């Protein structure tokens, strides 16, 4: 360790080495691998201390990355007070909406597209063979243009099948459901509500059109018995919910209400 | 010339239209017979005529309404915007105003330290003689109002004192804590009266005494708790008289009505109506879509003050004089006056940002749904004359609604953070509100605007109360000190 500032003086007088910055950058890049190697080789109490330090560093790093990523952070903290709270504040959460000032246009565009904060943001892509089973038809049972839908589907009230001779997609009546068990996150209860329509199936537009419900599908449910009302006094009778289970495996549709 | 032509000449000369009017009271009863008045008549002259018709000893101050619009300057001006039918008789509704006038509080006369944790609840006794406060440091304190100094410190609870309630005769105070225990205190000695009432498994959310006119001995008190039950306690015997179960989640609010009915609001979105003397469930009022936070009865103020008449208040508050029978009759007459013709009305506020107006003794369907708030509603209160409902909400505003029909009247804006609690003055003209932004504001309800701004607290204001004799306002909050405000 330099005991005086002779290094700085030299740098001021004669400048840096020609490859100084390159070397410093590369050393920093290698540091990551070196630290990992040290972590692997250490044993005993030294290892414990070292790993603990690394763990806290990693947590902080992840936090800063997440803070940079988020545009609209809604953190929910329970109102915490040792001093005493009146009964109307017990069990309430403080909703801190910290809106970072972002490009206003970007925000508007996002709202226009209709991006929701979904409980299941990404859904695993399903194989077409899983969804649609081939059904052989024709006199010699060689024609394979018909498909049987293996997943749960929703058909409206006034649904009538097309002429079976020309029906390409068969929705078996045993896999047709009208009700969903919808969970309300604020009330913390589950209600059995009627399905009005299938809004969007993340697998593909075709499945949306057919009314196929898989995990991650957004459905519209009838919430008229909850008694929700808009500010102007109009009654809300339909709300969106996202399906959270695999209905064809469970025999029922479980969904979370998008509040 | 025939006299008819002469008469016509006169009114033509004066160039003023005349109208046929009929006085009608709020309940719809007609007063006197129709007579005609010039269109430019002022409220003062209408008051003279109406008082003459009412034939009372002292002239009452009155307010006049035509088609829900108040007559401020002259009858003509009020009718300008409306279609006047000169053929028919015009109904003018008269409303007697309170004879006494409460003055707005303007200054903080004292800041009482003493509590070592936040002050959670504050209540004046029904006559305004005593002041009690409950706090997070588990004590209940009584304060001497004439010298504005501490009087008694009552230790006995082992957790935060969440709610306090005075008995309608002002001789006992019930306090409920976060452990589910209820203790009774005597304000003149500061000592505990009777046994500790234990039975609830979770914290107490509300306390309500049986009305004075039903039982002048003030024997029964009802308590609601987070465990979903309502218990009726016998204070002289020190035991639980009845347990009312039925709610599936925490009971947030409780009111003992004057007709022998008990109302309880809960987080399971329902309000249940019970018969007080045998604990039978009469009705379940459903309609809210989220937790029901608060409730108010139209006769709340009359039930709270019992036999005390705010108009007869003196500068030094006294205990009520007279035999029990006299006091009971006085309380009953006051209750009937506020109640009017119809049954009691109930208004409930909820987390779903709306209020409902119910007539719970008659119907389980609501009368109206009052929407407009943009955040949850923390407290609703009927004015002492039950004509106006005020609702305090976390959206920083207070909204005023008509007490009879539920129609929206006005919004009072001024607070910069959630409004926690409100209190009416005894003449129903002023409203004080305490908020999370540490200020109190006094609002004039007639011309709905801010009358006084009362800063002074260092942190959030959790509780406010206006004394029934109208002289003082007390407020307490997170900064651990209790402030008294006077004119």
What structural class results from the helix and strand content of chain A?
A: alpha+beta
Portion of residues in helices of chain A? 25-40%
Broad shape of chain A = extended
SS-derived structural category of chain B = mainly beta
Report the portion of residues of chain B in β strands. 35-45%
- Coarse morphology of chain B: globular
Oligomer: heterodimer
Report the mean per-residue pLDDT of chain B as an integer.
Answer: 88
How much of the polypeptide of chain A forms β-strand, as a percent range? 25-35%
Measured distance between first and last alpha carbons of chain B: 65 Å
- Count of DSSP E strands of chain A? 12
Straight-line N-to-C gap of chain A: 60 Å
- Name the strands of the widest sheet of chain B in spatial order: 2-1-5-3-4
According to DSSP, the number of beta strands of chain B is 37
Spatial order of the strands forming the largest sheet of chain A: 7-8-10-11-12
Rounded Rg of chain B: 24 Å
- Identify the most extensive interface between protein chains: A-B, 19 and 39 residues
GO biological process, one term (chain B): ribosomal large subunit assembly
Organism (chain B): Piliocolobus tephrosceles (Ugandan red Colobus)
WD repeats (chain B): 112-153, 154-195, 197-243, 244-274, 370-411, 412-453, 454-487
Pfam family, one (chain B): WD40
Give me a quick take on this structure:
The complex is a heterodimer of chains A (259) and B (487). Chain A is α+β, with helices and mostly antiparallel strands and 259 residues long. Chain A has helices spanning 6-14, 20-41, 44-69, 104-113, 128-131, 205-210, 247-250; strands at residues 72-78, 93-99, 132-137, 143-149, 152-153, 169-170, 179-184, 189-200, 212-213, 218-222, 238-243, 254-257.
């Amino acid at each position: 360790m330099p005991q005086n500032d002779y290094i700085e003086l030299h740098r001021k007088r004669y400048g840096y080495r020609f490859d100084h910055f390159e070397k410093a950058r590369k050393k920093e890049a290698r540091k990551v691998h070196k630290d990992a190697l040290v972590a692997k080789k250490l044993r005993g109490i030294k290892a414990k201390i070292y790993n603990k330090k690394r763990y806290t560093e990693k947590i902080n790093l992840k936090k800063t990355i997440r803070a940079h990523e988020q545009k609209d952070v809604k953190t929910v903290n329970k109102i915490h007070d040792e001093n005493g709270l009146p009964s109307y504040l017990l069990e309430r959460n403080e909703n801190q909406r910290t809106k970072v000032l972002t490009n206003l246009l970007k925000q508007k565009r996002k709202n226009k597209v209709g991006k929701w904060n979904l409980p299941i943001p990404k859904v695993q892509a399903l194989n077409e063979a899983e969804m649609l089973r081939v059904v052989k038809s024709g006199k010699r049972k060689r024609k394979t243009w018909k498909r049987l839908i293996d997943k749960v589907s929703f058909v409206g009230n006034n649904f009538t099948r097309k002429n079976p001779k020309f029906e390409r997609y068969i929705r078996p009546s045993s896999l047709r459901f009208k009700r969903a068990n919808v969970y309300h996150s604020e009330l913390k209860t589950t209600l059995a509500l009627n399905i009005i329509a299938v809004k969007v199936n993340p697998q593909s537009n075709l499945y949306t059109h057919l009314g196929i419900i898989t995990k991650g599908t957004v459905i519209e449910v009838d919430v008229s018995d909850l008694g929700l009302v808009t500010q102007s006094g109009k009654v809300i009778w339909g709300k969106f919910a996202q399906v959270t289970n695999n209905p064809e495996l469970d025999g029922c549709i479980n969904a979370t209400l998008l509040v | 010339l025939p006299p008819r032509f002469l008469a016509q000449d006169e009114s033509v000369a004066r160039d003023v239209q005349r109208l046929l009017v009929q006085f009608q009271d709020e309940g719809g009863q007609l007063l006197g017979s129709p007579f005609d008045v010039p269109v430019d008549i002022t409220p003062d002259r209408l008051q003279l005529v109406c008082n003459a018709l009412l034939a009372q000893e002292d002239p009452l101050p009155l307010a006049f309404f035509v088609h829900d619009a108040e007559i401020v300057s002259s009858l003509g001006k009020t009718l300008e915007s409306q279609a006047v039918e000169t053929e028919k008789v015009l109904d003018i509704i008269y409303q007697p105003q309170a004879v006494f006038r409460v003055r707005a509080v303007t200054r903080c006369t004292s800041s009482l330290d003493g509590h070592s944790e936040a002050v959670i609840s504050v209540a004046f006794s029904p006559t305004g003689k005593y002041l009690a406060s409950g706090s997070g440091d588990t004590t209940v304190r009584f304060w001497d109002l004439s010298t504005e100094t501490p009087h008694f410190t009552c230790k006995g609870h082992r957790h935060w004192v969440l709610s306090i309630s005075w008995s309608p005769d002002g001789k006992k105070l019930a306090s409920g804590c976060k452990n589910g225990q209820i203790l009774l205190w005597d304000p003149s000695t500061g000592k505990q009266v009777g046994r500790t009432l234990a039975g609830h498994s979770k914290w107490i959310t509300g306390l309500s005494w049986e009305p004075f006119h039903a039982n002048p001995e003030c024997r029964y008190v009802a308590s609601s708790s987070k465990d979903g039950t309502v218990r009726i306690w016998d204070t002289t015997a020190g035991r639980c008289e009845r347990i009312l179960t039925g709610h599936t989640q925490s009971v947030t609010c409780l009111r003992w009505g004057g007709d022998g009915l008990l109302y309880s609001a809960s987080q399971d979105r329902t309000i249940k109506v019970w018969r007080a003397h045998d604990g039978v469930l009469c009705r379940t009022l459903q309609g809210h879509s989220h937790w029901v936070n608060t409730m108010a009865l139209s006769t709340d103020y009359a039930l709270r003050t019992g036999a005390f008449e705010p108009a007869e208040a003196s500068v030094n508050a006294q205990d009520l004089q007279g035999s029990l029978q006299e006091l009971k009759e006085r309380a009953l007459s006051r209750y009937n006056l506020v109640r009017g013709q119809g049954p009691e009305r109930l208004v409930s506020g909820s987390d779903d940002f709306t209020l409902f107006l119910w007539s719970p003794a008659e119907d389980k369907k609501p009368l109206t749904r009052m929407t407009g708030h943009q955040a949850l509603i923390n407290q609703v209160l009927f004015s002492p004359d039950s004509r106006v409902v005020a609702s305090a909400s976390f959206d920083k505003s207070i909204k005023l609604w008509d007490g009879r029909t539920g129609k929206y009247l006005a919004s009072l804006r001024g607070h910069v953070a959630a409004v926690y609690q409100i209190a009416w003055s005894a003449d129903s003209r002023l409203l004080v509100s305490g908020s999370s932004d540490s200020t109190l504001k006094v609002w004039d309800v007639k011309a709905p605007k801010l009358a006084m701004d009362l800063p002074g607290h260092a942190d959030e204001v959790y509780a406010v109360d206006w004394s029934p004799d109208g002289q003082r306002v007390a407020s307490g909050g997170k900064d651990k000190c209790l402030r008294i405000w006077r004119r």
